[in-house]
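Model it.
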Amino acid sequence: MKKHLFLIVFLLSSLLISEDKWLKEVKPIITKSELKVYKSLKTEEEKEKFREYFWKSRDPDPQTPVNEYKVEYYKRAKYAKEKLGGINSDRGRVYIYLGKPLEIKTYRGYEKIVSCELWIYQRKNRKDDLPPFMNLLFYKPGDMGDYRLFYPGIQTAFDLLSPSFINHAKSRMEAFRLLKMDFPELAQASLSVIPMEGSPLFNIPNSSSGRVISKIFSIPEKIVNKSYLSLFKASSGIVEVEYSFKEIYGKLIFNKSEKAGFNFISYSINPDHIIFSQKGENHFLAKIQIIARLENLKGNVLLEKSYRANLKVSRKRKEEIERYGVTFNGFIPVIPENVNLKIFFYNMTSKEYFTGEAKIDASAPVYCIGFNYKYTDKGLSPFQYEDIKIIVNPKLIFGKDDIVSGVFKSNGNPFLFLVNIDSGEKHKIKDIEKTGNFYFFKLKASSVPEGGYFLSIKDNNREFKTKSFAIIPYKKNKPIILEKEDKNFNIFKYIFYLGEEYLNDGKIKKAISFLKKIPETFRERGMLQIYGRAYYLNGNYEKVINLIEPIKGKDYPLLALLANSYLKINNLKKAAYYFEKIRKYGDTVAVNNKLGALYFSLGDKKKAKIYWERAKKLKSKEEK
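Modeled.
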């Protein structure tokens, strides 16, 4: 009996292993709907039948005895396993989808850049809608791990610089120029997958690159005829999200806001649609990431904040979002300078993105238009002006039941008019409430004729006009609002952010004056790099050492600050000690030369020779 039981268990285990092996083999090309159906099948007979139809549905010429697609797939898969890190690696998947490139240019062992491969594709006999020429770039982030596909715009030239060289670039534009000096082809490929397209001036995802990459990764969806799934009872009721990477449309507005003496830029994003994946009979999910980046007019990044929102909704809520839309509101603190704000919205579930940017004039009047306002005495939220919050919708279209509301800042006795864009007819707004230097107003949309309008605000012998908006004669449904709030509003956190922005803007003394305001009890480990950079750039090297040296588990930026600070005060022994630790992050020509010079100065010529020879060997490798 035991013998028979063992045999049954063995046979079942063999079947499971066989099934698992097959799924692993076809993972790059099996679609989500196919996978869901296959996993729902109960018997081995059904699964064997499924595997047969899986390949038949991809056979380019069923009249021939050989399935050319299947043969070619396993041929490419074998190469991907042996040479490219596996069939699920970025290089492996691209090779499986597109085949062998026309040319592969390899960049390894260079001091300036991480390891890269540039795959050049030319359309010959391909029957697809991809561009005739493509440059697909793969790189090792931080020069560690496996090669990853480079997404122009999401990744930039900064990502291609080596960890030991990245500090030479203060902005993305400078990183691009450094890359272009020695590696012009890599620099161009960092802008777009289409040769000679893209510009280093715009640090937002390249839409044509996104569309091309989307098409590459959707190839498995396009080549299969999924009608065969109807043969299997589990194929009904499937919600499928195809792998893509494409740009979507939407609305985006920015406004300056203020609270407790701090300046913010509030933003509201209204994408055209949100795609969900189904997680149960009545449960749906969309994973959203939003990045807000402040840059000065030279292109230097002052501050970047990102957050993720997992929209876990019921079927009813999903239908409401699909009917009315949804807006995502957030804010970022800003120094009183002219800056650029860039927003990147990414639906990780559907691999779709939306971008926008605006130049923020520090001297421009503070105002905001919305659908209502309310008092709030706790925390901080987008479009908040001291203790009053404006309810904002990027689509500034007011229905007959709406109230045109808003706020503006004034030191005088302002007059406010609603002006019809076409006729020039003015409607004076009388319902105005003052709180400090802020004036809040309301006007019933039904009290004026339909049409396009703007607000004219006269104040102290000056007049400015707001953005235009529309009033329509029927009810207008509004999107659902989701917001990133700070319920605690700790002022020291925002003092630190402003200090960081001043530091990245090159205003070192101003940065230190802000950083000094923060009590030591509030300082977190993650802040130390900013403090260290500020004191180092100000020449306070002893301060850097006293601040960072007691910290355990120091990472690369902290080690670099310590090594260079000790070098500045001529403590060569300590400098060498920390450069040794830095070398573990990147065995480069520069670090080995520096260590050689340090040990030579310390009188250890034997050790100096070892490092200089290592630097010479690395340099020779680079030249080759």
